[in-house]
Amino acid sequence: MTLLSIDWILLIEKLILIAIIVFASLGIALYTTFAERKVAAVLQDRPGPNRAGPFGLLQPFADGLKLIMKEEIIPNTSNKVLFILGPGLAMTAALMTCAVIPWSSHVELFDRSIDLQIADINIGILYIFGVVSLGVYGIMIGGWASNNKFSLMAALRGASQAISYELAMGLALIAVLMLSGSLSLKTIVDQQMEHGRLWNVAYQPLGFLIFFICAMAECNRTPFDLPEAENELNFGYHQEYSSMKLGFYLFSEYVNMIMSSAVMASLYFGGFDIPFLDESSLSPNLAAILGVLALLTKIVIFIFVFMWIRWTVPRFRYDQLMNIGWKKLIPLALINMLITGAVILWLQK
Q: Which of 130, 168, 238, 315 would bridge 329 by S-S if both were Cys, CB 3.0 to 4.6 A apart?
């Protein structure tokens, strides 16, 4: 490929789209931290943060400024290169997931049709699993490079937890792929938007439940927050981190939660589909805007459920966590996959 053969307009469009999606994801994650504290306050019958700005809306900026202003401490006995690399890798892996998520259909600007998806690759699901696996390295590198036994113990917990629950998640996802016949998220969403077709959650309720539980484990959310079990392991795998390095680890958890919600909405709840609305009857730009709002609404609902569970369900013991993953979820995912295959074969006869 030469410089002359590159579609520079398309490249600029994609760079602008990447910037918009990344900054929007970071902005949503910023206020997700505020929403978490407000939801916890409502559930515990207290006001929550209400001092910084009107109704406490500037609290996330106050928290971010506090992290930035804190002293940067790197332990003398740590591996300094890997110590810095760990949080950066965790945040990068969290943001890379957004590349294959279809945020809406397309908009028409300046006589061009612009897809609201960074990359529609035919192995989108495999890409997501590959990127999610990279996030484990961020946890493991951070815990090991700290040269702290508690950090390392928590990092080992996190790595083994992620590997265990990725298996059940993958098996639950196979049933959806059997229905759609494609690894492309855009194709899966388009199929759910077809006339007379229900969302995949109607065909795969058990598969969705397994996927949702595994998503909570992958995001280290309660009751699966064993890598960050503060009352057991001091402060988890980021025990030795301070300032914005700690902020990156804490922030990546919320970005992962947003991206997991977007993936679940795309796979099981029609993505940017709006129920009982024929998008083809609208102008492309209006349909695209409504599609983005629909997907964001589904993401917000999932995030609220994540938070509700965190402040309602107690944490599992580690042996219980592993038993659920290996002895409950994996067998259920295998049974669900076999039943799905049998039903597909029966309908094809």
A: 168
